[in-house]
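Hi Prof. W.,

I finally got the GAF domain-containing protein prediction working! I wasn't sure whether to trim anything, so I left the full sequence exactly as given:
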Amino acid sequence: MKNLRYVLEYVIFVFVILLLTWIGRLPANYSVLLLILGLFLWAVRYGLALYVFGLIVTEIILLTRSFNSIFEYRFSFESISLILVIGGLPLGIVGEIFRKRIKTLENEKSRLQSDLERLYEDSLTLKSVVEQLQMRIYFEGEGLIVLLERLKELEVFDVDEIITRAIEMIAEFFGLSNLHFYKMERDFLRYVAGIGKKILPNAFELSKSKVIEMATRRGSCTITDVLMEGTLTETYEPWFAVSVGERERVFGVLVSEEIEPTKFSQVLVRYIHSIASWLYANIRVVAEQEKFMEERFKNIDGTWKEEYYEYKKRIMEKRLERFGVPYREVCLEYNATLHESILGELRKSDVACAIRFGDKVRLKVLLAVCDDSGKERFLERLKRKYEIRVC
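And this is what came out:
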């Protein structure tokens, strides 16, 4: 491709010389001189192949006596041809040597650049390996013990609250900018708390994510595991997920949607899985304490006493401030005969407090993980079914 370009350049050069000579802008003797010098220049720059081509073109021009009508040759055709051969051939040989040398140097440069890129990639790989080894040494030494001690110091008697605080501590300890927890209810996941940008919805079915679904069966799963098995779908997938709970009864899932590639490794996932096992044991203890709180604060109809309602509201407010987890509060008034039916419309995670006065009931409800649109849909559904008033 380059040789064709060089030939084209030479043809254009010759054409311009002949055109200027034909229109009288360039004396004929200068034209012949320029053709000879041009041939020598191209021979030095581009080597023997172009020299031979230029020699043939020049000889054809001289043989056709293109300049006979406007000047008399001072040299015979044989003399000019001899000059072209004796002067041009050595220059062509020198040019060919230089051209091959330049090509060799260019190939050497390309090879060195390729080696440099490979060495850079190898250095990044080695750096990642060293960091993982450092991580393993630290975690298998005092690292995990320090984290477990910090988690043990959490004196919390609410499951959602201990999850909220634990995620913050785990993410800080492992240097993660993105970590979320979803509570599992049968085959449905509901968002509880987390840090960093969240792309997955607040609530979705387990089958919507292969990474999370496989994590609930195996204990943990990464995006690379799904890729290796060829089960990746077009749906959005997190980098990794770790189940919290027993294999047959998963309580929830820790999910990371974004992570720096240098920090991502199977070692990291394995350590988070170890922490998740301990966290579940702690959650079970807190869950037992919640049962005692239910006996103390929960009413027979499923609502809660005012003291517990305000306690849960403070927890939801903290989650909103720290992690942006939304919640909404609604107040309803209706006839006491509708009370049981309306309570049946609430989710398990919602907290309700009822105040009776005569045949009327005033119900306050904390809608967990709910925004304004969710609140509006909830109220519209109730208004279609029951005669209620929003207070």
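Confidence is low (pLDDT under 50) at residues 66-73. Does that look reasonable to you?

Thanks,
D.
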